[in-house]
């Protein structure tokens, strides 16, 4: 029922945005310079100055569009973008668009895709991705084991993996912790030591032991934007049934998440708020870890300490993605279409927008902070 | 590689051979098709076995329908870089469907996919298969193939390589999709749909009769109605025919068409005809003796607009092939038309049914005014020596109306966009309650298609609130539903599209009362993916 309504309104492109005057946005005073990064079709990386909400520069990414997934180095100077139908990785100095890194993963006989997974080590020296190789024999394909590939960023253009380690299937987004591990978001959330391939379970999801009345979680995330709270969120949907009759109508439906603290690599797993509408991505307010924001057909604000939704703002079209300024005051909602919608984090009211040259579709929306 | 050699050899045989094809025997054609495989496919595939019984990697370990082979070969050209002329492609699909096709029994239960009658909810084989394999396309797509377990495994790996996110979708990411598909599902499919079967062995050995000749045809065209006609199939070469169709719709309008047919695997009839200016396609299966054909005919550019089609061979013998309409309400005189061939002798409509008057009479078509008395039930209709069992249903009261399709998807379109609207055509099937007097039970008596008036209402409260019935489209008198225009509608809440969820209502008059039947329809947005078959 709900779904069907959402489905209808997903067709409305920008109808709300048209009338109102949206240009007046108070520039936020910031000690450090924050840049909002995203990729649009055909294949451009945009560097948006978050003090003026204007595009500072646009870098051309070689080849066809990839998915727009990217990782930002901790010092905020470099962004690594997944290009060419999820196969190649290109690194840019966002201060001048210079291409400093590239890795072409596929060969004529092996097709290699990375499903969103890119991460840079805390010291900025290594780049990680989970490769999903398929061997292309002459008259058949052969699925091979996925592996974590480690690249030396210093190797620059045409870099090759320096180490690889087998990992689970179905890993999407990943993140590097300050302790040197790589968080792997798959059926369960795991962490791997990229020096030796040792893996530990961070949060059981598919294999959780939550009791028979809980539906195994459907965990999925396409985007990483936890940099402002230094965390990694793997959201999931689950349901608690009232009996072994498995009545979907009377079950309690919940959003939940595994939230990994990237300083320690430790996680908390919890049901957060009742499932009422679809949220594609969550972020945490950097000022208060109980406050989360989510986006899809709505921008919403939640207090997870009380399992409550505090505010909902109907968006004029679908926005897959969102991020937040370092001071927690301004929310940027993007993805899907070609406009980034800017909102006040207290009221969720719209306070501005940024028009881009093409659609973001599935691209990440990330913040790079360059400190003086 | 000996590519160039083979090519020149083939060029020398070339068109001459094809032109003579009608005269040469099948083994030479088979060699010709094998030569195409050697010339065109061995850049990637490999040949083993002997020259007389060659085996081609991947190709020889599968069997499928002509449509199945076409899909694979189209993929070889579109995605793998195969180059093939149209003639080579035709010859290859024919050869592969003939020599590695499906036996008639092996297509049973899944012919809707071949007939492109896709407005239906499949009877799932089982939930596991539905979730693993039936969420992107129909289950019929794989149920109409036969492979070794190894080939089912290769197919899973093909999906993973071609559609790499397969294992990340909903209904896949919450389980070990690849391991399940590659191990459990492939083994399961290898048992359910194995390469080697008794059915296929038997069908290969069976003698097949040529489908050339004259056929007595009955069918239904949406918007025009039921018709009866004569079809001729004149053989142009082995398995290929020129076809004409000539007849009358129930309202007396003439129907005329001509085109071409190909018969695959000894029984799969596929024809393209232009009928009164409209390109139509026929998909039928012959029975084992090759004396009758059953299937569907639809508008080539709009497969949703179609109806059933059947043909009975003229063997010089008398035959009743259909009675239109197929029901008679007890106590009420009504016109019935008996469709057949070589109809001579007395007319007998079965127990308690009286012919009050013969309105017109020809060898192939008799119209009578008839009246039934007595018990409800099916009657055998006879003209002279010819008899058609259960051809006429005598009933006292209409108790139930079914709407077909019961579940349909239509799509908004047009309005200057580049995708046309996807319409749906409906029919109502009437039943009487049967011996137990309760409609909706097993013993209900199927009376046949009945004229109905058509309307829509919102499917539920949400649809009612959004006024889906006002915006999503409308019916014409012939039971064809046309969805709304594509694009945003400023009149609608939040300027939504003209999509909606509707209940389709058929109202059938019966004596002084009316009986309603319902179906459900989703009016959806355009489908930008052009599909060969779903």
UniProtKB/TrEMBL annotation, chain A:
Keyword Iron-sulfur listed: no
Keywords, comma-separated and alphabetical: Signal
SUPFAM superfamilies: YVTN repeat-like/Quinoprotein amine dehydrogenase (SSF50969)
Name of the molecule in the record: Quinohemoprotein amine dehydrogenase, beta subunit
Signal peptide segment: 1-31
TrEMBL record, chain B:
Protein name, as recorded: Quinohemoprotein amine dehydrogenase
Transmembrane region(s): none
Any coiled-coil regions, as ranges: none
SUPFAM superfamilies linked to this entry: Cytochrome c, E set domains, Quinohemoprotein amine dehydrogenase A chain, domain 3
Signal sequence region: 1-30
Presence of the UniProt keyword Signal in the record: yes
Sequence ranges assigned to domain Quinohemoprotein amine dehydrogenase alpha subunit haem binding in this UniProt record: 32-200
NCBIfam families registered for this protein in UniProt: QH_alpha (TIGR03908)
Gene3D superfamilies cross-referenced by the UniProt entry: Cytochrome c-like domain, Immunoglobulins, Quinohemoprotein amine dehydrogenase alpha subunit, domain 2
Record keywords, A-Z: Signal
Domain Quinohemoprotein amine dehydrogenase alpha subunit: 210-313, 318-395, 401-530
């Amino acid at each position: 029922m709900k779904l069907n309504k959402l489905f209808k309104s997903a067709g409305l492109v920008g109808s709300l945005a048209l009338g109102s005057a949206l240009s007046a946005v108070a520039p936020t005073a910031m000690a450090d310079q924050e840049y909002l990064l995203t990729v649009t079709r055909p294949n451009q990386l945009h560097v948006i100055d978050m003090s003026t909400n204007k595009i500072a520069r646009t870098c051309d990414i070689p080849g066809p569009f990839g998915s727009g997934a990217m990782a930002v180095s901790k010092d905020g100077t470099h962004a690594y973008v997944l290009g060419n139908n999820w196969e190649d990785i290109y690194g840019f100095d966002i201060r001048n668009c210079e291409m400093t890194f590239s890795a072409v993963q596929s060969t004529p006989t092996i097709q290699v895709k990375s499903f969103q997974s890119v991460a840079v080590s805390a010291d900025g020296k290594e780049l990680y991705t989970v490769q999903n190789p398929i061997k292309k024999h002459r008259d058949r394909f052969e699925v091979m084991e996925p592996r974590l590939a480690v690249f030396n960023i210093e190797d620059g253009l045409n870099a090759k993996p320096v180490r690889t380690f087998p990992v689970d299937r179905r890993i999407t987004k990943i993140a590097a912790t300050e302790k040197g591990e790589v968080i792997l978001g798959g059926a369960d959330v795991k962490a791997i030591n990229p020096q030796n391939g040792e893996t530990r379970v961070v949060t059981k999801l598919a294999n959780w032991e939550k009791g028979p009345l809980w539906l195994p979680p459907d965990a999925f995330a396409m985007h990483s934007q936890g940099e402002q709270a230094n965390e990694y969120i793997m959201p999931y949907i689950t349901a608690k049934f009232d009996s072994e009759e498995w009545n979907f109508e009377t079950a309690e439906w919940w959003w939940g998440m595994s939230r990994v603290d990237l300083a320690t690599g430790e996680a908390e797993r919890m049901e957060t708020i009742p499932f009422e509408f679809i949220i594609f991505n969550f972020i945490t307010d950097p000022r208060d870890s109980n406050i989360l924001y989510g986006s899809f057909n709505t921008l919403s604000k939640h207090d997870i300490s009380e399992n409550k939704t505090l505010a909902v703002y109907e968006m004029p079209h679908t926005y897959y993605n969102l991020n937040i300024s370092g001071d927690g005051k301004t929310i940027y909602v993007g993805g899907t279409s070609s406009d980034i919608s800017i909102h006040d984090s207290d009221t969720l009211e719209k306070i501005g927008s940024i028009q881009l040259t093409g659609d973001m579709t599935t691209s990440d929306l990330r913040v790079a902070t360059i400190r003086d | 590689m000996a590519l160039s050699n083979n090519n020149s050899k083939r060029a020398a045989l070339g068109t001459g051979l094809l032109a003579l094809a009608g005269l040469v025997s099948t083994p030479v054609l088979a060699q010709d098709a094998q030569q195409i495989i050697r010339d065109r496919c061995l850049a990637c595939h490999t040949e083993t076995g002997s020259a007389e019984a060659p085996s081609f990697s991947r190709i020889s370990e599968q069997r499928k329908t002509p449509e199945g082979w076409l899909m694979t070969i189209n993929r070889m050209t579109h995605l793998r870089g195969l180059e093939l002329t149209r003639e080579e492609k035709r010859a290859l699909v024919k050869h592969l469907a003939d020599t590695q096709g499906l036996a008639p029994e092996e297509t049973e239960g899944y012919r809707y996919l071949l007939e492109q009658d896709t407005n239906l909810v499949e009877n799932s084989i089982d939930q596991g298969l539905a979730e693993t394999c039936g969420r992107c396309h129909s289950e019929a797509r794989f149920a109409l193939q036969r492979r070794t377990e190894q080939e089912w495994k290769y197919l899973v790996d093909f999906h993973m390589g071609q559609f790499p996110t397969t294992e990340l979708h909903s209904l896949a990411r919450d389980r070990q999709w690849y391991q399940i598909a590659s191990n459990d599902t492939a083994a399961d499919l290898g048992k359910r749909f194995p390469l080697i079967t008794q059915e296929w062995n038997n069908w290969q050995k069976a003698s097949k009769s040529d489908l050339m000749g004259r056929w007595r045809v009955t069918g239904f065209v949406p918007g025009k109605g039921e018709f009866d006609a004569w079809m001729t199939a004149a053989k142009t070469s082995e398995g290929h025919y020129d076809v004409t169709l000539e007849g009358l719709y129930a309202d007396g309008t003439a129907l005329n068409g001509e085109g071409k047919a190909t018969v695959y695997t000894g029984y799969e009839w596929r024809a393209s005809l232009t009928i009164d200016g409209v390109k139509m396609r026929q998909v039928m299966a012959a029975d084992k003796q090759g004396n009758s054909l059953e299937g569907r005919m639809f508008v080539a550019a709009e497969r949703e607009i179609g109806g059933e089609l059947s043909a009975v061979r003229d063997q010089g013998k008398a035959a009743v092939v259909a009675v239109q309409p197929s029901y008679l309400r007890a106590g009420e005189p009504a016109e019935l038309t008996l469709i057949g061939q070589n109809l001579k002798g007395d007319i007998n409509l079965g127990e308690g049914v009286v012919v009050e008057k013969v309105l017109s009479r020809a060898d192939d078509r008799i119209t009578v005014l008839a009246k039934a008395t007595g018990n409800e039930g099916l009657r055998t209709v006879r003209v002279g020596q010819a008899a058609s069992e259960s051809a006429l249903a005598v009933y006292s009261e209409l108790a139930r109306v079914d709407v077909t399709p019961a579940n349909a998807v239509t799509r908004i379109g047009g309005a200057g966009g580049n995708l046309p609207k996807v319409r749906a055509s409906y029919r109502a099937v009437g039943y009487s309650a049967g011996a137990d007097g309760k409609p909706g039970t097993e013993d209900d008596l199927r009376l046949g298609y009945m004229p109905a008036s058509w309307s829509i209402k919102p499917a539920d409260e949400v649809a009612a609130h959004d006024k889906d019935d006002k915006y999503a489209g409308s019916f014409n008198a012939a039971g064809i539903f046309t969805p709304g225009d594509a694009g945003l509608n400023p009149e609608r809440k939040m300027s939504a599209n003209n999509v909606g969820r509707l209940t389709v209502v058929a109202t059938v008059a019966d004596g002084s009362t009316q009986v309603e039947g319902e179906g459900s329809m989703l009016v959806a947005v355009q489908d930008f993916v052009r599909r060969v078959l779903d």
